[in-house]
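Practice set, problem 2.
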Amino acid sequence: MQLLLFLLVGCSVVLAEDFKRFEFQPFGGYSASGDISLITYDNVKHGSIRVDNSYNLGATFGINITALDAIEVFWQRQFTEGRLPAETPVPNSPANLIAFNLKIDQIHVNFLHHYWVSDPRAKPYIMAGLGATTFYANRNGQSGSNSEFSFAIGGGIKYFLTNHFGLRGEARWSPTMMLPSDGSFWCSIGGAGATCVADLKIDLQQQLDLTGGIVFRF
């Protein structure tokens, strides 16, 4: 019994010494983006906006509340292109799609829950987050931005090579809720300007992110 108490106290002291409050992670990765459907409330479909899959960059800053639970501020930018349906479609022609530059920012507050495993250097976790996604579009000098609510769920693993340095990999599903008011934004980028009125149905723009980076904790 005394030996068991000694081991428990010893483990508690080690954990207390190893516990670090803050974590910072720069990362990069790949985003697979879903289309944005242009369907009005009267069920008229005007095609969809294609968002190309592309690379992303970002960073997180986290606070460890306990040895297993943490909250973090998450920022990611995706550098990609969007493709709009042409105003006068030509059947089976690439001219049906109008390309424009597109950057997508996500700013979330995430909650992470970690799990104990046999290797003390490894920390697998699940995560969930809430925040906003902002689309920055530019075509022929016409530019603008539009922000909408988004959320994320996913998981990953951290592997610490030292007490202050490690690696992190994560897979995350992070859809954005597209609202009726978004129609005028995409119309202006497409060149229709004020002549375009489209009250879109509420829909989710799907996205899957795969990221990896370096973790610094202190």
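Problem 2, part (b): a different protein.
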Amino acid sequence: MHRRTKVLLIRPGYGRVLHTMAHLFICPNCGKRTAATERTAGFRNIPKGCSQCGFGFLFELLDDYYPAPTAAFFACDAEGRIIACGRGSKELTGLSDEKVIGRDATEVLGLEFEEGGDPVATALEWGVRQLGKRVVVHAEDDLPTTAVADLFPAYDDDGGLLLVLTPSK
């Protein structure tokens, strides 16, 4: 189900114009989802931050997304290197932020996708979401874990992606 924010514009001489805008955001640190009409904070052209935990930027979603409570969040740059670890990352991998930040996500997390290919590279190169990808996580300091990966490309000038890993039962 999509949340839509309706904005009514009244222009002199043109009558009413109704625009429907849906901007859904998720915080890679705490996982809070929000809906807003603006992508930036106030009059400045800086990305929105999280109102719950204060994290510096949010990822915009095309559709509403409900991560599992056990999901692990990793924000990556345009080269696929981890720039931030969020909720659940240490619990899933056993790795501290200091051990993963600045390193290639596929390598440091030891991601082996069951279908073959590299959904991380696809999301980065083509800017398309990759949802429900079965993966085995072989993090350096932990035992292998099966998970489902959801990848959301960043739709801004910096690029990058949000990698969400949900452990399988």
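Answer key, part (b): Residues 1-20 have pLDDT under 50 and may be disordered. Residues 1-66 form one domain.
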